[in-house]
Amino acid sequence: MGLLSSVPDPEIPALSVVELGIVRAVHLDPPEVHITPTYSGCPATLAIEAAIRRCLDDHGLESFSIRTVLSPAWTTDWITTEGRQKLRAYGIAPPDPGKPVACPQCGSTHTEEVSRFGSTPCKAQWRCLECLEPFDRFKCH
Amino acid sequence: MTEAVLSTDQLTQYLLRLGDDSLVLGQRLSEWCGHAPSIELDLSLANVALDLIGQATLLLNAAGEAEGQGRDADALAFGRDVMSFRNCLLVEQPNGDFGQTIARQFLFSSYQFALFRHLTASSNTAVAEICAKAVKETEYHLQLASDWVVRLGDGTDESRERLVAGFDWHWRFVGEMFEDDALSEAVAAADIGVLPSTLKSEFDSRLEAVFNDAGLEIPELPRSITGGREGHHSEHLGHLLAVMQHIPRTYPGAVW
Questions:
Q1: Torsion over CA: A50, A55, A59, A65 (sign)
Q2: Are B56 and B23 in contact (CB under 8 A)?
Q3: Intervals of CATH 3.30.300.130 along chain A
Q4: What's the complex ipTM?
Q5: Which domains does chain B have, with CATH numbers?
Q6: What pLDDT digit, counting tens, does each position of A76-105 carry?
Q7: Are B133 and A125 in contact (CB < 8 Å)?
Q8: Do A116 and B57 touch (CB under 8 A)?
Q9: CB–CB of B47 and A72 under 8 A?
Q10: How far is A71 from chain B (nearest CA, A)?
Q11: Which CATH class is domain A3-74?
Q12: Which of B80, B7, B78 is closest to B253 using CA atoms?
């Protein structure tokens, strides 16, 4: 698990696939890494699998297979606390269900949704009404 | 109670129905890419399409596994002819204008959300797991479509007229989604699937609530046109498949 913390997400390289909650488990017997896709059609899923494969191979762990596990379904609740801080620092408002959406630039909660979808399936477009910066928000999912 | 046993062919056919709905609508929606009224809508429609195609990949792979002939999702998507597709007629309808697309999306996502919610309890592990993943995406599609039904319906005269015209195109295809037949009765008896007719009341109450918010009236629904589940499609599906299948059929087995 510690090793895979060095594998960045291809779309949000500030975060590792572990911090995003994509890597669910590492089993030794049989040697398997369990991953779960964020969205059914997320095109990054294949890139993530390839990156994990490369990381394992680079460390002599060719015997590990990668298994995609659909259930339980991935949820933004699995993004780690550190991952959330990194998202904010990267300019993406992390998913906090029930809380007002704060601008990752100035911290104001005087914000509005521009569009339910953003640059990737996992994000929505928002705008800060204080500093007027547009920003991505990780959708609560 | 005797446990109903489903044949391999019945399970395959049911998974094809589920997968083809998502595949055909995903392909249809992707025609908007680069053409939507605004960049935000372009992204929204393309992302909904992406979710649907992702669901289709999972469902058609499961169909191929159930079939046991070595066909995967790509083989099923690109290698079947129009009469072998099992999607409902609604999803193959042309995009029309944005109002017509939103009307179709609202009707389909309302149905699919109710369906997937039930299928998360399927006795078939693959169906249950795929739907547990997909239902969250579908809920979001439904929210997006509902927002737009309200926005267009409660907007300008033109936006309302276009939306109403969009719904008028699609009403005749609503009945098919909730029609029971021998296959749906068999999958429901095996606790793998659900009888479509049992989803209708949930669909109706959502339709009523959103139409109420949008200030629209639900008209008397016309007689349903059916046949998609048996492979009898409108002329629109053939054109859609021609676009979707032409590259893999021209260069079979080609890889990047």
A1: negative
A2: yes
A3: 3-74
A4: 0.83
A5: 8-217+226-250 (1.20.1260.10)
A6: 999 999 999 999 999 999 998 888 999 999
A7: no
A8: no
A9: no
A10: 5
A11: alpha beta
A12: B78
